[in-house]
Amino acid sequence: MRVDRGIRGCRASQSCWFRRLVVTFVLTAAMTAAVTGSATAAGVGVGVSGGTGPSGGTSPTSRPKPKRKPAARPETRHSTAANNPFATRGMWVWLLSQSDGGNLSALVADAHRYGVTTLYIKSGDGSSTWSQFNSQVVAALHSNGLRVCAWQYVYGVHPVNEAQVGAAAVAAGADCLAIDAESQYEGRYVQAQTYIATLRELIGANFPLALAGFPYVDYHPAFPYSVMLGPGGAQYNAPQMYWADIGTTVDAAYSHTYEFNRLYGRPIYPLGQVFDHPRINQIKRFRSMSRSYGATGVSWWDWQDANLSDWTALSQSVGTLTGFIADPSMATLGIRARGDVVVWAQEHLVSAGQRIAIDGAFGPATQAAVENFQVAHGLPATGLIDQATWQALLRFAPARVRWTQRGKRTVATLASARALPVPKSATLPAKRNEIPGSFGAGLPR
User: Fold this and answer.
1) Rounded CA separation 102/125 (Å)
2) In this predicted model, what pLDDT tens digit does every residue of 326-349 receive, in sequence order?
3) Domains in the chain, start-ordered, CATH in brackets?
4) Rg from Cα positions in the chain
5) Among 399, 417, 289, which Cα is nearest to 355's?
6) What's the pLDDT tens digit per position in 282-318?
C-alpha cells in the first residue's frame, strides 16, 4: 500500500526518529478522535472506556484478546457471486481521519456519488488492532448501504496474534477480510501456515478472505503464495497492480499479473492505483481491461490520496475495449525453474501420483514426473509445464502438507497431511520489489 509522503525524505537519523514519533502520536490521536466524532455524528453509540469499540475499543498499539470461534458465522451471506463483497467497486482507506476528514456522512455521500459500494478500512497492523475499525463505524456504513471489508498488514513475526487481529475485525461486523502481506512474509512458510490455520479456526472456513499482495509472483520466489492461496487459505486474490508505480503500462501489468496468478486458481480482483494521480485515460483503461480479463470487481488505493480527477475517472462510464483480446497464457515452467510456483506444481504432481520432493526446485526428478504425467494424460511428453499441462494438473487438488522448521514447533494441521521441511526455494531473494516500500505498513513515516 502507499506510505504518507509528509516526511518521505527523512532518513535514519535521531532527528528523523523524533519526527516520526511525533507524527505517529499526532496521527494516532487524530485518527481516534476523528472516528469517534464521525461515529457520533452519524448517530452511532460510542464506548466510554478509552476507545471507539463496543467496550471502549483498542488503540493502534494494543493486542486483541484471543477470541473463540463464534457460534454462527455470517459466511452464508456470501454464498453466491451476487453477494460477494469483492465483486464490486471498492476503495481502500488507510487512515480514516484523512479520508473526508473521518466524517462518515461525507464518506457515505462520496461513496454513493462515485459508485463505490465496498470500503476497505484498515483494521490492524501486525499484532495491533486499529480503533478506527469498530462495530459502530461498521454499523453506520452498513445502515447506509455500504459493505465494509477490513484489511490488516501482516509481518509473520507473531502469526497467531495477527490471526486474532483479523478475527477481531470480523467480530466487529466486517463483510470480508483482506490480507496485506508483502516482503516481510517472504520465506515464512511455517508462519503463513500458522496464521492461516489460526485465522480460519477463528472466523470459519467460508468467511470471504482475500490476499492483497505482490502482483508479479515470479519476482517473489520465496513468498508463500501456495499457503496464502492454497487449501483453507484466501478464496480470493486481489493483487496490487499499481502499474504507474511499477513503471509499466496498464496492459503489461494485467498480462504479467494474470500469467502467474491464474496458476493458483482463485478469482482475481485487480487492485489499481489512484495515488500519485496517473493519467485519467490510464485509470479508465484499467477499468475496461478488468472486464476483458473477466474480473467482476475492482478496488483502488487509496481514498486519502484521490483527488477530484481520480474520483471522476474511476466512476465515469467506460465501455468494453474494442478489438482487444486478453492474454490467456499461463506461465510455462521447465528445468531449473525455482520458487513457489514450482512448489505449487509439485504439490499437484504429488496428488496426481508422482513421487517427488516438494522443494521448489524444478530438477531432473520433477521433469521426469512431468513427462510421466503428460504421457498418462495424453499430452506431448515435453517435460515442460505449459498451459495444457497446467490445465490437466490443476484438476487435481494440491497435496496437503504441513511445513516445519528445525528447532521450531511443528504446525498443527490435518492428521493426514505430510510433514515436510520448508522448501529450499523459501531462501531465494526477491528479483525486484515492483511496488517499492511497504505500502500500508504501520503509521505514516
Assistant:
1) 19
2) 999 999 999 999 999 999 999 999
3) 14-315 (3.20.20.80), 340-427 (1.10.101.10)
4) 22
5) 399
6) 999 999 999 999 999 999 999 999 999 999 999 998 9
